[in-house]
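Ticket #4471: structure export looks truncated?
Reporter: QA, pipeline team
Priority: medium

Steps to reproduce: submit the single chain below to the structure queue and open the exported record.
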Amino acid sequence: MKVTRRGPVAATALLLLGAVSFGPAAASAIASDAQNGIVTDVASTATPRVIGGQCYGGLANGTLCRKISSMVKIGNWIYAGGIIDVVGDNNGGNERSGFSNLMRFDATTKALDPTFKPQLYRTAGTVSDGAVDGLAASTDGSTLYVGGEFSTASSGPGAPGVVRKGVAAFTAATGALKTTFTPTVCSGGGPCNVYDLRVIGSSLWVGGDFTKIAGQSRGALASLDPVSGALTSAVTIPFSGRAVPTTATKIIKIKANPAGTKAVILGNFTVAGGQTREEVAMLNVDAASGAATSVASWYSPTAFHQAVVSCSTKHYWPRDIDWSPTGDTFVIVGTGGGHAHPYPAPCDAFTKWADNNSSTAVPVLYNHTNIDTIGSVCNIGAYSYVGGHFKNLNQEVRRNGVKITPPAGTANEVHYGFGVIDNSSGLAVSNWNHSDQTGRGEGWLAVLCVPGSAATGGGVYYGGDSIGVNGNPQVQRLAYFAARS
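Actual output as written to the record:
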């Protein structure tokens, strides 16, 4: 699909929040606000700037790594978590210190809240060893749940630290630590990291590399009471094995369909509930309780095994997943380590799948970047927004396994770090961020789609460790593309 660069687009799409599962009341309020067309590809200069170094490979000293890894919108605030300590205001100056891996800013004005400074860390005064990896909101929006690699949490600088290994909860309005929410991840031994968390039904799902919670065995996935943080029996399906032997069994992404009846799980594992599931699994869910009832039959043994064989031995390939608003399809994006990985391996690619209960599923759509990572995706129905540190899209495009030839001039088209995929054709939307340079780093590995007009903060927000977008160095680790009027 060809669009005029930075011009209006006739398509209409409904933007749904892509970073957290809300209960029915919150979801209906969000979904009622439609947005016309694809967002602008000109990054705003109004957003706060996270100060520091990049995180990818040898680009920076590891202690200088700063990034945004997750975002969620609650009310008119957008909350961002990652590795964060110094943040500049949206006027390009006034750098403020004292943040500890969590911040928030006004969705309408983009102004940083300088008073919201909950602290999450392992070592006091150090942010790089206590990263925030996942954010979620309670169904009523009153509570912000945080998952990551920290062991201590507090309400702000100078407030006493409280043991919170991997999971903490804060009052969303004030940032005060909820002392009645007392999870016990890794109590009984083992690692304590939580890489993603979601409210599904009446349960808080957590995924990470843990093996014990409250002294009971839990293989990388578990459920907590969203009020007390106590371990529950809603999710007891164990995940085990290591597709990549050099890193632990872990779950990095959890995403339920809009009905709350199924959830796709991504990570480094080979077995789910006793069944072979290499790095991707689907679970059946009771929508009301949020209980995982069984491992779904849906799977792609050929594609996912080929990914384990063909992708880098250093990386598990899947990085993000998002369902369509109708819940009949979902998209998965991933990495590949820069190696040759022929189809059907979905490494370094965007893939769209049908929720059809097939045990031998084939991707409906496949769009390959050549050799670089797509790390984040938000599916709005007609289109999917993707982010990463890729340089190209349309290197190879397939529909239902059949290779197609992109239109003239669009094969292997340059798209630095950002892109839009047409969910019908599988092709990148030509000229949206076409050939615009952005900093590499790990890339743009978090994305949040917000409905509504630009005047109310509607548009697409990306987070990562990259600096500079479209030649503007002021955009640092947070990029906002506004809804078109």
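Status: closed, not a bug. The export was complete when the record was re-opened. Leaving a note from the reviewer for reference: The mean pLDDT is 90.
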